[in-house]
User: What shape does this take?
Amino acid sequence: MGRPRTTSDEAILQAAGRAIGRHGPHGLTLAAVATEAGLSPATLVQRFGSKKGLLTAFADHANQSVRLPFQRARERHDSPLEALHAALADLSSAVATREELANSIGLLQLDLTDPELRERAAEHARRMHDEIAALLAEAVAAGELAGQAQVPRLARAVQIAYNGVLIVWALTGEGPLAAAMREAVEETLGVKTPNQWAEQG
Assistant: This one.
């Protein structure tokens, strides 16, 4: 009988996410992830085979868990639009500095050049779009958005705004990321921010 695993694959993949934030995808090594997870590099080789195997597992885990921030947001907020803001803030909360965000965005370079990773990244984008669209449809049903809103197109615009804010904030670092994200999404949806209401008052 083999020795039981004392550290789950999920915990290791979370450590991989932190290591990517620290080192970027090109500077990432199994040794760096092992240090972050409190394991030996040999353990990671045994579980994932290689750095590529680890990154593939990391991408699969991201696809399986993309719905979780949206589920948590629904549980905390009665308003679908507030749930949307909370979910997007949750998704971007893993990074605290411009450098960490830049390193995480750097993973896109690998996604675009490796067919397996590109397929997984595209699937992640599709799943995120569907989650955004579901909340926007709920917002229409709740009267928070106009009934004639074209939900799929609006969801695509929100997703583009989300990704755009990440890139701009990584470049400038101006203000809190969550505040920038909320303002961009509200502008995309045509919903006035509290500051805009105050200016008109």
The longest helix spans residues 115-141.
